Amino acid sequence: MDILIVDDSVVLRKILERSLRQTQIAIDNVLEAGDGQEALEKLHAHAVQMVFSDVNMPNMDGLELLRQIKATQSLRHVPVVIVTTDGSESTVLQALSLGAAAYIRRPFTALQMEAALANVLAENPQAKE
């Protein structure tokens, strides 16, 4: 499975990648983007099976990225997992109403990440392909 990690912090992208690689889920390639605009460019250039995105980023935030992914015919099938410190109820509800496959609050453990991934893959079997 190829994934895209979207966060304006290089350090947090690396932490998330390390956590994902510690799960029992087979991950092949990991692409990275520093904001939603860069993420959209990468999504149009590379096929990925899942996106992990922060909410608060410059240029284009994670909610707008999610909105644009779900509005694009060729991308709407890609599950988007929101991974952020913003755990406000309004942000969680907005992300889920926009089509987020899961919402994970930081800090998280590898076990929490694996459980969320397993749920997303169970609900989105095409993400494994």
Structure explained in plain terms:
- This protein has 129 residues and is an alpha/beta fold.
- It has a single domain, classed as 3-Layer(aba) Sandwich (Rossmann fold), CATH 3.40.50.
- Helix content is 43%, strand content 16%.
- The chain has helices at 10-21, 36-45, 62-71, 89-98, 110-123, and strands spanning 3-6, 30-33, 50-53, 80-84, 102-105.
- The chain has a five-stranded parallel beta sheet, sandwiched between helices.
- α4 links the parallel β4 and β5 (102-105).
Report a brief summary of the structure:
With 129 residues, this protein is α/β, with parallel strands linked by helices. The chain has one domain: Response regulator (Rossmann fold). It has five helices and five strands; from the N terminus they run βαβαβαβαβα.
